């Protein structure tokens, strides 16, 4: 299939990252975790807040583990990727705004609302990611995937800055207004992707359950796909735990809230050019090599996090995370796309999503267990470092047709090659 350059469609696709990153940054990372943890600590005492947020984060991704593959098969069969993306995003946006009704009066109700919103966020990403292969030629997947994450950093940073200003001016009332802003921002920037980006053709052939069974059988014949998913499960476990637990852990060791929010905003600002840079690295040396570079940076973050005690150290680590985070995630998405059969991206991206969800469940849960057993979040940080190292080692054995073994760079004349692996 020959793809023409559709800059309007590319921009609309990237704008969804611009919109939903407000939820990822404000509710998953920078504002809600320390805020909700402080409410828990006020009632139960520290480190109950860090432990509670670890379990809440895990539950926030649990609901979609079973339904994502079924919905992915349905989206491919019926041609419903955009429709399901819009539905999940709308639910997530509305429920995000509903956090304003629960907090600070009931952290338990706030936790339930967050679980629903996080499930909708992860579900929508299945259909969003599956639109990537149909937008541009395979040679540009790394670049476009990275550009989407760069848009996300910029959009998320703008909303976080606005929420920080509201919180500084109005206290709890400003934080509640920030949750409403997150929901509105997410809903608004979902409109372009579901109205401009073309829906891939429906893929006839059997019912949803039969398609899913066939996909599972086919997936078993693709050892590199499973090896990558296992590697991704491990290192994305570490990435997701850093995203969800950094602010709660920083609050536990005594980092002021102003430094927590400021440093995480710093992460976003650095992430914009750094993610674009990693897109170029992926195009030059291959997505796999780019991911390995990013994971080396993450391993350094995990080791240094063991010694975190001052605000300046949190800022330094936040900057390093900003350099590597978007690159690792963007290149993982584009590398995985190269392992899939054409026309069934939503089905197979559901496996990617399930791997990410299981990682999102296991990482914060392991962090919470280690923290609870030791009485300190530093034990949880050590678990994260081990996850990065294990994932990087396993990724080293993944080979992709059309890329030079050992480097991940594309071999001349072999750009496609997406079937028969």
Mind explaining what this structure looks like?
The protein has 16 helices and no strands. The chain is an all-alpha fold. It has one domain (9-197, 221-395): MFS general substrate transporter like domains (Growth Hormone, Chain: A). The longest helix has 30 residues, at 141-170. It is globular, with a radius of gyration of 20 Å.
Topology:
Blueprint: H1 7-30, H2 32-44, H3 48-59, H4 64-78, H5 81-102, H6 107-130, H7 141-170, H8 172-188, H9 191-196, H10 208-220, H11 223-252, H12 257-285, H13 287-305, H14 311-337, H15 345-374, H16 377-395
Helix pairs in contact: 1-6, 1-7, 1-8, 1-11, 2-3, 2-11, 3-11, 3-15, 4-5, 4-6, 4-10, 4-15, 5-6, 5-8, 6-15, 7-8, 7-12, 7-14, 11-14, 11-15, 11-16, 12-13, 12-14, 13-14, 13-16, 15-16
Summarize the structure.
The protein is mainly alpha-helical and 421 residues long.
Just name the CATH architecture: Up-down Bundle
Q: Give me the strand/helix succession.
A: HHHHHHHHHHHHHHHH
Count of strand segments: 0
Q: Can you tell me the number of structural domains?
A: 1
- Strand percentage: under 5%
- Major sheet summary line: none
The CATH topology corresponds to Growth Hormone, Chain: A
* Unreliable residue stretches: 404-421
Tally of separate helices: 16
